[in-house]
Write a structure and sequence with these properties.
The model is unreliable at 1-24, 388-399 and 406-428 (pLDDT under 50). Strands 1-2 form a two-stranded antiparallel sheet. 71% of the residues lie in helices and 1% in strands. By secondary structure, it is an all-alpha fold. α1 (2-14) packs across α22 (375-386). A hairpin with a 5-residue loop joins β1 and β2.
Amino acid sequence: MRTLITVTLAALALLPACDDKRATNYVEEQLPAFRRLGPGNAADLKIALQPDISTATRKDAAVQAELGDAITELAIWSDLSRRDSSDADAVYHQAAMLMDFGDVDGALERLERLEAAQTKTDKKGAKLIPVELMQWRCAVLRRLQRLEEAQKTCEAAILAGAGVGSQRLLVKIHLARGDSKPALEMAEKLAKGAGATGEDWYDWALALDAADRASDAQAAFDKTLLILPSFTPAELARSGKLKTVAERQQAEVAWQRSAFALKLAQCWHLCAELELEDRAKRCAQEADKIEPGRVDAQRVLHLLEVDPGGAVKEADSLLGSRPHPDLFAAKARALMAQGQNEEARRALQAGLALDPASYKVHSALAKVCATLGDAACATASEQRLLGEVESARHERNHLRLIVGIIAAVLLAAGGTFAYFFFRRPKRILPP
């Protein structure tokens, strides 16, 4: 691990301080990701981003998901489910996105309509409900704080053969209901099982804390952050800023909502580049509803492409009204583009004061510290980003990060952006 960090820092130090100034247009930056979905250039992309909803397909929905235009994606899934009321996959996507937008009641109503259409009865008159439908119903009921119903639904799903998704939900429900013993038993099995996620370790940490095993809980919070460095709720819980189970679970939902707001903010950026003004405005409005200030960083990055000095002034203006860690990171990029690395470091330190776990801020701080020759600072941020998880999967991710940085170094002279992509995860049950 130490070797990986050393090589990464060496590569970071080689990057020219003004590489952000020569960064390519945001549309060109995004095109490789879209090419695997069809669009081959900016013109094709502009057409693909404006489908006819009444004839749109799953592929069109995937393009909107890559773009981050959840508004249009939701419209497509809703229309697909309208065209075929038995299309369960479309309904699950629709319900998930309604929850993303905060319309949990709407998600439950849509699932209940599907349940009425798909539920059958056996010879004894017992209801036979599809397992996946029960899982989604459990997730929605939990978000509505209808915990007793959610628990019964999850337990029925597990008895019917549901996977770990229902078990994870049941752990959260036990925690919310104060049932620490079953929560602890289930959470430990998930955290120590194959394919354990950062969220699994977070839930185990909450269960350990509820069982008055404070030192074990701290170790589990540490493990959470090693697996998932950007998971702010674990940082806040570990530091004692979040004390109750309710606060900690609410923070997890807020973290997911923040990630959703970021997608909408990036949608604004791409649509602004393509001069799709109505679409850009709509994405910005929805992002601001979820997390005010999330889109501001994208505005600064958009301006940075043509006017680094103006980008710094814009960042200062926006920070005066609604400071956000992403905005500090964007300001730092603009300062670095002008060779003002010390000022960039100060901006990033202010960003960390708002969110000590901000992945974007730590990422920028690792780079600016390496440029300044401050190895201790750079190493601290790199460790915060990468963690020290000794699993093959995470080691591969570290190597891919290094390869990406080295590629950027090799290509920087030509002003070309280096791209490396990760598989888009399958939609999973919301926390």
